[in-house]
Amino acid sequence: MSERDKNIENAICDDAGLSKSEAAYIKDCLNAYTAPGLPEGSTANLAAAIGQHMDELYNVPHRRVSIGDILSAVAAQIRFYNAYIWIAALVILLAGAVWTYNTGTASVNIMVAMVPWLGSTLTLYAMYQRRGVWGELERISTVSSEVAVMGRWVIAIGLDAAAALAATLLSVGMGWESSFAALTLSWLIPLLVSAALSLAVTLRFGISAALIASIAVWSVQLAAGQRLKAFYLIAPPGDSYWAASRWVGLVLAAALTAWACFMLRRADREDTPSCE
Amino acid sequence: MDLNDEQLAAAASRGDKAAMEVLIYRYHNSIYRYIYRLTASESSAQDLAQETFLHAIQALHDGKPPRSFRPWLYTIASNLCRDMWRSGRYLHEEACDISDMDVPCDNDGAIVDLLERQQLRRRVIEAVTSLPMDVRQPVVLHFYEDMKVKDIAAVMDIPEGTVKSRLHRAYKLLKGRLSNDEGSAGDERA
After folding, report:
1. Range of the domain at B93
2. The total number of structural domains that make up chain A
3. Is residue B187 pLDDT above 80, yes or no?
4. Contact (CB<8Å) A139/B120
């Protein structure tokens, strides 16, 4: 018996807790699964093709990064989401600004009421399987698919957080009565809960269920309003339970994210087919 | 003096074609066999093995060379397989190409012996390809590619403990399936 055979037999014994004879039987069976050889010359052909490809890749002259390069990188990032999502974000910002201007107070409700819709859309968009630059990047990166989806999700949250910051700075710049932290948190917490909810439900029940769940949860939030007390996640800063509702929101978001991670790992195990 | 994989990858990332060629000669066949045993399709294995190296050189060009080349290359191949399954492309391929052609046969071997070996090969392919992918992948890497648990963990991006538990599950499942098959094959013969 070769050294390799002895080692693999021992490894099977150790790994599966099988007896020596059982491990030997498994080893002999698995050894019968021979793979057909590569067609003659295919490695040489591949080496030649890769060589040509390298000529093209490496012969591009290096140049300094210009302002135009930076702008095109920013444009590529913006194109990552389709135009409707940016239009929706803009509408929300403008609606919040107009509402705040007309009422004369830093009323954030109109903005946070619409944030969950944006959060859900962004999350569902992040879940969408697609080709192109991001698909390519994920394929060549040494990350698992669950990490890739979570990465997309974090990007979705990050972009919306940037919108929250823009809204806050806009209101502060205009001199409206508002607190920087209050407005940002009022945007981010509902967003986190909403995005985590839609991610978890999408993974477990599908995209349609996630949309219905998001609409239902946030309709109840809006309809039940003050009666939800600390569970009213879009409570304005003036309410006495405002801080408590933020903590509840964070805990909810963490729990839903953990559930989403669990579902993602499970889905990843199940979506690879066997030949049965 | 032979350069190791990582040194060659570093040279390839700087545009050294000879270094890349050595890596291709070192790994083309093993990557092809790995993909074949995951997909059970010869044509998919050939295509995806080529794609693996295209992605590898693109990644070497765009970023830093990997700290450990072999697991990194197998990760690219695994991701391409996963991508193929997700795209549904495998549905149009010969997904379970269980041919009898590859059993080595010496001229002195009896026909009965050859047939038995072909039958065994078919049973093993069916048993391996019927394993869920999360346990099929570690067993292919462990048994056929002689990969250590640490490297399998790096390829699959899971903890070493999880690799061990999946290997345990895989060999148990294989034992159950192959033992049952042997029983039913014996019954058929009787």
Report:
1. 1-97
2. 2
3. no
4. no
